[in-house]
Write a structure and sequence with these properties.
By secondary structure, this protein is of the alpha+beta class. It has helices at 3-18, 22-31, 58-74, 95-114, 117-131, 177-184, 191-198, 279-282, 284-305, 316-323, 351-368, 371-378, 387-393, 395-427, 449-475, 485-496, 506-541, 549-556, and strands spanning 82-85, 135-141, 145-151, 156-160, 166-176, 205-214, 230-238, 247-256, 261-262, 309-312, 330-333, 340-342, 443-446.
């Protein structure tokens, strides 16, 4: 079996697995983002109108807000959103380690800013919110270290390994003959491409496939790119046995040390490859109802403002002589009718009721896209808004976003940072690591607004418990003993993501308490001794003769 035949066979299998999702994605595209989604490889450079089902753009605006809010709350270009750390907390105190981690972070932030990373992430968030599944490739770039390429739904297929992790990516697309020759080189192109190039048909289109998948049976000792952990293959698919057909051919073989395509999903059911729930899917029914309601509302207004008319046939001559009000239609009757009247009679639809139903549908659509939460992020000064403010105002929605945020960390941000770090290291851009970090795997902590706000939700419970207990203690003093203050501090610091070195361990606290108690006992003993010495001194200096109060007391006690 030839290589192209083998790749095409797997491509067809992946397309078969994907086929049941295509109708849903088409509907989501029609009702939310009509310009997104490619379901044929020939769907390129087509500017025809695709939003014929959208009379109300609420869902489109809400999806835009979602994408902008995720950008601001998760990977904001205006503020730090991740922090590198050593695998052992004690290493973070080493000066050389601190300096190196900060230098690497700065380089990575600069690479993200100077490349198209943030632009591509915004596109990815838009696809993720509407279709539930997104894909973005990260490739090495001579000018900007990395180059990101977002893909739209329907143009690619995904596959998973035994751990339910996406590790396979197939994409069908088309390029012109001229682009193929420039990208792959004339000598690497197929006979068909060479013939078209020689004839000057540089703008003719040819079907290509890009496959990224685990590189089975590779030579583990080979330094060649084609023997890396994941293979990357570009090939011309060919067009079968039709007239003028040609066989496909491998155009370029390469490889990656890690899976180069990020494929986050909003929510997945069981072993499904593609997402089965997301804001766009959740409110699809409401969006359909909203479009229908908006259409009916305008139809009702049109029937009242410009209805078809009816009148006596004797008026036809007068109307024909230029006396018509030019309605859409006039129905003539043989009978005794005076003037022209609406064919609907006294038809007066309840526009307020229709508008109310549409507003209710709009609110459900906005709620599904978390518009109130993300508008607070997108509509504020992103450098000033705090995680506490977000958590206090949107605690309920943050709890709902928790699983999604964790999935994005695992399927999007972790691979993004790992891939970028490895490319930088391979390019020799990073400074040499200190001896303490040689051969160890770094940790990543996410410090975006939403990541911190998630922690603040847990912190809020601790604060409320503490406040309640202290209020109870004012009436019932024994209530204060229910709290373990040392454990409260530990849990609060962990929820806030504070550096563990800032908070002392329980053993250290016990030692400090013991030292304070010993110091207090020593101070008390010293004070007692001083008081006894002063008393003795006073007693020795007291006059025990003469007629004074002390002598009287001693005489009464029989001591003198």
């Amino acid at each position: 079996m030839g290589d192209v035949t083998k790749f095409n066979k797997r491509l067809e299998a992946l397309k078969s697995e994907r086929s049941s999702f295509i109708p849903t994605w088409r509907e989501l595209s029609d009702y939310h983002l009509a310009h997104r989604g490619r379901f044929l490889s020939s769907d390129r450079n087509k500017g025809h109108k695709r939003n014929t089902r959208q009379y109300n753009n609420t869902s489109k605006l809400a999806s835009r807000t979602l994408a902008s809010g995720m950008m601001a709350g998760i990977t904001s270009p205006a503020r730090p959103w991740f922090k590198l750390g050593a695998p052992e907390a004690s290493l973070n105190d080493v000066a050389a380690v601190k300096e190196w981690l900060f230098a690497v972070q700065s380089i990575m932030y600069r690479v993200f800013s100077q490349s198209n990373t943030y632009i591509s992430l915004h596109t990815l968030y838009s696809e993720l919110g509407v279709f539930g599944t997104g894909a973005m490739g990260i490739y090495e770039d001579y000018d900007n270290v990395i180059r990101c390429k977002p893909y739209t739904v329907g143009s690619y297929c995904l596959g998973m390994n035994g751990r339910n992790e996406v590790d396979t990516f197939y994409r069908e697309y088309e390029k012109t003959i001229g682009e193929c020759v420039k990208l792959f080189g004339y000598d690497n192109c197929s006979t068909y491409i060479k013939e078209q190039w020689n004839r000057g048909n540089t703008e003719a289109w040819v079907g290509l496939v890009h496959a990224v998948e685990p590189n089975d049976n590779r030579d583990m000792m080979s330094p060649m790119a084609r023997d890396k952990k994941f293979r990357s293959v570009y090939y011309e698919r060919g067009n079968g046995t039709q007239k003028g057909s040609h066989n496909g051919q491998i155009l370029m073989r390469s490889g990656f040390d890690e899976f180069a395509v990020l494929s986050p999903r909003w929510d997945v059911t069981g072993e499904d490859i593609y997402a089965t729930d997301c804001p766009g899917m959740t409110c699809l029914g409401d969006t359909k109802a909203l479009q229908l309601g908006e259409k009916r509302a305008y139809q009702a207004v049109d029937k009242m403002a410009n209805p078809p008319l009816q009148g006596d046939a004797t008026l036809k001559t007068k109307v024909a002589n230029g006396n018509s009000l030019k309605p859409d239609e006039i129905i003539w009757h043989d009978g005794d009718m005076k003037g022209l009247t609406s064919i609907y009679g006294n038809y007066r639809p309840d526009l307020n009721a229709i508008e109310l139903k549409n507003q209710q549908a709009e609110m459900r659509v906005k709620k599904a896209f978390y518009e109130d939460l993300f508008l607070m992020l997108a509509g504020s000064d992103r450098r000033q808004i705090t995680a506490r403010e977000v958590a206090e105002k949107q605690e309920e929605k943050l709890l709902m976003l928790g699983p999604v945020l964790e999935r994005l960390h695992n399927e999007l941000l972790d691979p993004l940072i790992n891939r970028t770090f490895n490319i930088l290291q391979k390019a020799g851009v990073l400074p040499p690591a200190p001896p303490e970090l040689q051969g160890v795997e770094l940790g990543v902590e996410y410090i975006s607004i939403l990541a911190q706000a998630q922690r603040m939700v847990a912190v809020g419970g601790i604060e409320r418990l503490t406040d309640y207990t202290m209020n109870m203690a004012q009436v019932y003093p024994d209530a204060r003993h229910k709290l373990n203050p040392n454990q409260l501090v530990d849990d609060y610091a962990e929820a806030m993501g504070v550096n563990p070195n800032i908070v002392r361990s329980s053993d250290d606290v016990a030692k400090i308490v013991q030292q304070e108690q010993q110091a207090a006992q020593a101070a008390q003993a010293q004070e007692t001794a001083a008081q006894m010495a002063q008393t003795a001194k006073t007693a020795s200096e007291t006059n025990t003769t003469g007629d004074n109060a002390l002598n009287v007391m001693l005489q009464n006690a029989g001591l003198q």
